[in-house]
Design goal:
With 374 residues, the chain is of the alpha/beta class. It has 14 helices and eleven strands. A seven-stranded mixed β-sheet has the order 1-2-9-6-5-3-4, sandwiched between helices. A two-stranded antiparallel ribbon has the order 7-8. The longest helix has 24 residues. The termini are far apart. Bound molecules: nicotinamide-adenine-dinucleotide. Nicotinamide-adenine-dinucleotide binds next to helix 4, helix 5, helix 6 and helix 11.
Length: 374
């Protein structure tokens, strides 16, 4: 059982595999040995206080059984810890434990932990190996693949970072059983974003999968045997889409414009980041903000004459089926406008009719005068 997706970054020929296999966490040791090509090294597992009691023991045991010397560094839980101070303390820890360039970092967690671990790996000794073990749906289908790493600053989200590709990605969908419903909704919103950009089969597959979640208890959804294969295939299809984009445009080149430009993955993100920043990263999950952002960008595209009404309604229906999103009506438009000014994206792209990135920021800022477009 299980499936894999090969990621190959064209300009650098960097290759790695994303393995998607239910129950594979227990095999993390053999997998790490294969990815790194060695077992005689130290591995620092970066995780957080919520995930550690559930999965750290299993992963540590699997790595040690294979011969790795393991260390673990546990951060507090939350987007607000994706900052310079977490990086500093983690780098200090690696230094104290005398980590060398032949050693590696394993990220065990969602997108927050993955981004911090990847950034630390990119800058410690000017770059050491790192492996991604994503534990949220969002991290599985999106953030663990593609090599974007980084942290938030007081000026905005993800404003400091580096491109640093992992040596491998291990996805065990069974870990989604312990994820809160809100986090599933957040992950599904990112999946809808990618599916909308891809269109065709991925969009249909994603829409069909949403029906499974109407069945009720999420934990049962992931443990039901007949669903396992379906989830593996769904996650693999999402990663395949993302990796095709990343392969062609790893660094999100400002000059490269086209359907495979990495900028298209920012669909809905200008508004999403502004919402997150203006609520101090505490009110919305990232994926929930993306859900709002996708609807905002779609509505904006409609008003600019780039998207028809039926497509907007279709998108609205699919986002609604991901689960309830927190209200945003109370957030002051001025706060959002200020946050938009600090967005790092600076050029306009159009794809599948949706308005995304460059001046999504400028245009969103103007459109915010409508205040509640939905
Ligand atoms: N690098 C990229 O390409 C990229 C792409 C998209 C998003 N991101 C970043 O990812 C972050 C969002 O990631 P996220 O949505 O995974 O959030 P997250 O990492 O904060 O995880 C969400 C919550 O779920 C908990 N959790 C994680 N796995 C769990 C499990 N299996 N069981 C129980 N609880 C679990 C976490 O502790 C946390 O409380 C943002 O910072 C965003 O900027 C990065």
């Amino acid at each position: 059982m299980g499936t894999s997706v090969r990621v190959k970054i064209r300009p650098t020929s960097w290759k790695y595999e994303a393995i998607i296999s239910t129950g594979s966490l227990a095999e993390a040791g053999r997998w790490a040995a294969k990815c790194l090509g060695r077992t005689e090294s130290k591995i620092a597992i970066l995780t957080n206080r919520k995930i550690a009691p559930i999965y750290l023991g299993l992963v540590t045991h699997a790595l040690e059984r294979t011969g790795f010397e393991t260390y673990s560094f546990i951060l507090p839980d939350g987007e607000r810890y994706k900052n310079l101070s977490s990086i500093e303390t983690f780098l200090q820890y690696l230094g104290e434990k005398n980590f060398q360039r032949t050693d590696a970092i394993v990220s065990l967690g969602g997108g927050v932990i993955g981004d911090i671990a990847g950034f630390a790996a990119a800058i410690y000794l000017r770059g050491i190996d790192f492996l991604q073990v994503p534990t949220t749906l969002l991290a599985m289908i999106d953030s663990s693949v593609g090599g974007k790493t980084g942290i938030n600053t007081p000026f905005g989200k993800n404003l400091v970072g580096a491109f640093h590709q992992p040596r491998g990605v291990l996805i065990d969908p069974a870990v989604l059983c312990t994820l809160e419903q809100r986090e599933i909704t957040a992950g599904l919103c990112e999946a809808v974003k990618q599916a909308a950009l891809a269109g065709g089969k991925l969009f249909d597959q994603t829409r069909e999968l949403l029906d499974v979640f109407t069945e009720g208890d999420v934990s049962k959804v992931f443990t039901r045997k007949e669903n396992a294969r379906r989830f593996e295939q769904f996650i693999a299809a999402q990663i395949r889409f993302k990796s095709e984009i990343v392969a062609a445009d790893e660094r999100e080149s400002a000059r490269y414009v086209g359907p495979k430009s990495r900028k298209i993955l920012n669909f809905g993100h200008t508004f999403a980041h502004a919402l997150e920043k203006s609520t101090d990263y505490r009110y919305l999950r990232h994926g929930e903000a993306v859900g709002h952002g996708v609807l905002f960008a779609a509505e904006l595209s409609k008003r600019l004459g780039l998207l028809d009404k039926d497509s907007v309604n279709l998108l609205r229906d699919v986002v609604r089926r991901c689960g309830p999103l927190p209200q945003i009506h109370h957030i002051a438009p001025d706060e959002i406008r200020t946050a938009l000014r600090y967005d790092k994206k600076t050029s306009t792209e159009r794809f599948n009719g949706f308005c995304s990135s460059k001046s999504e920021s400028r245009e969103s800022s103007r459109a915010i005068k409508f205040r509640h477009p939905f």
